[in-house]
Amino acid sequence: MAISAEAGQKGRPRNKRWVLPVLILVPVVVIIISLFIGKYQANPIDIFNIILTKILPFYDAEVPSNMRTAILQVRLPRILLAMLVGMSLAIGGASFQGLFRNPLVSSQILGVSSGASFGAAIAIVFSMSSLVIQLSAFVFGLAAVGLALLINRFYKTSPTLTLVLAGVVIGSLFSSMVSLITYTADPNIKLPAIVFWLMGSLASSANQDLMFALPPMIAGITVLLLIRWRLNVLSMGEEDAKALGINTDRLRIIVVICATMITSAAVSVSGVIGWIGLVIPHFGRMLVGPDHKILLPTCLSMGGTYLLLMDNIARTATTAEIPIGIITGIIGAPIFAYLLTRGSRWS
Fold first, then answer.
1. Which of 131, 202, 313, 341 is the most interior residue, by most CB within 10 Å?
2. pLDDT value for 152
């Protein structure tokens, strides 16, 4: 099921003038609505006063200190982090699907989630701080993909296929090591913490998490957006891309590094959240077609909005917050099954 540059041309919407305004407006509306959602009831006027006070230095309004803390230190960082994580996972999945010319590839194909899970589990077992847990998850996520790239260097017959297979091997290895850690962990304290992290959650989001994840996410996303047109050339095939003067080996490495960096950063602050990097690119192609110049920005908007909506459901559906990874799995799997039954117009 390879994705080609010409694929899906007939299925593209003819009039796409409405797409850009919608992709900009919908995330903004969802962010504003999310500010009012939560167990702590806040007056809309007070919330707007808090935001304006933060944005405009000359604006001053009297707002209860506990409400200011709830909005600025808890709710707003969580909203922004949900947007960033969703954007990162979605654009990472779209980039990998274009790189490997396969719509069944996700942002976790090269074992980054398994490596990050192992890093987080190790840090939790040794009772490290939340910052160290995030750093360990980020580093081991990068290390897992680094090992896959190292294995790929020894086989030159089919670099794309070998890289995917190496990612599967490394991912399985780290998953087994995570299972070993959970088996030997303290069942009263360490084991619940590891299991909860693996389910994926933004419940403990804070400004510190946002500051940790922001630099690698912004750097990786920026590079992917700058080179997104090259993915169109690469999707035509290895030989055609080389004939057009594209250094496919270098481009492949750049895409893998950037997509891995943003995915690892996302997993390190949110845990394992599945299906976004697989499902959102499909919806993006249905909306704007397979052109990566338009598809990647579309995935940014849709991915961030989707995860923020799922997070709103996770923290309001029940009295006890549901891990967001469970919500995305319950909703994402049937959606993807539905897409498969319809058939792929872009494949």
1. 202
2. 84
